[in-house]
């Protein structure tokens, strides 16, 4: 059997250290989420997270950073999961983009609501957004002839996104429930799709609005 070279051993060692680092980082973020679920309005300090994750506070600071970086890391984890879900959809399903985004929020409501409030207070701007995937999906629908060839899909996506953000804030404030959150987000999308529908697809894209009636 061939003996491993020093380079191979060093590479294996770096890989193992990187894996252990990633595992500890994941455990720290899981601990932060668990604390939020247990005490939604509590202060999320590095000390409490460290105790829950069974690591030293210095480990939290070294692997993630101070408190504001913890919130950024939680936001990044949220968008990572959204990217994963949307990747399974492909790029040609605007409805799937909206549904997947809403369902990700409501799947973990306590953490999601606190995250949104922290984003508002800190002014955090996400470097990735479902709006990007929505633009692509709408552009794909236009390319397939579902929407008019001159439809401004970026503008449509922005209008839908604004409506979804409004519904999100109502949901965070507990003014609407999960079902109404999804219904209002989809209503905005259905209106945009119907407004820009190509003639051959107009009846199909108007159908959800006709069936909805006055609800939402």
* Beta-strand fraction estimate: under 5%
Provide the succession of SSEs: HHHHHHHHHH
Structural class computed from helices and strand pairing = mainly alpha
The N- and C-terminal alpha carbons lie at a distance of 69 Å
Largest sheet: none
Portion in helices: over 70%
Shape: globular
Q: Count the strands?
A: 0
**CA-atom Rg in angstroms:** 22 Å
The overall pLDDT average reads 88
Uncertain runs = none
Helices, by number, come to: 10
Can you give a write-up of this model?
It is globular, with a radius of gyration of 22 Å. It has helices at 6-38, 46-53, 57-63, 67-89, 94-107, 109-122, 130-143, 153-172, 178-196, 202-212. It is built from 10 helices and no strands. The model has no long low-confidence stretch (mean pLDDT 88). With 216 residues, the chain is an all-alpha fold. The protein starts with 5 loop residues before the first helix and ends with a helix. Helix content is 75%, strand content 0%.
Summarize the structure.
The chain is 75% helix and 0% strand. It is mainly alpha-helical and 216 residues long.
Sequence-ordered SSE layout with sheet pairings:
Blueprint: H1 6-38, H2 46-53, H3 57-63, H4 67-89, H5 94-107, H6 109-122, H7 130-143, H8 153-172, H9 178-196, H10 202-212
Helix pairs in contact: 1-2, 2-3, 4-5, 4-6, 5-7, 5-9, 7-8, 8-9, 9-10
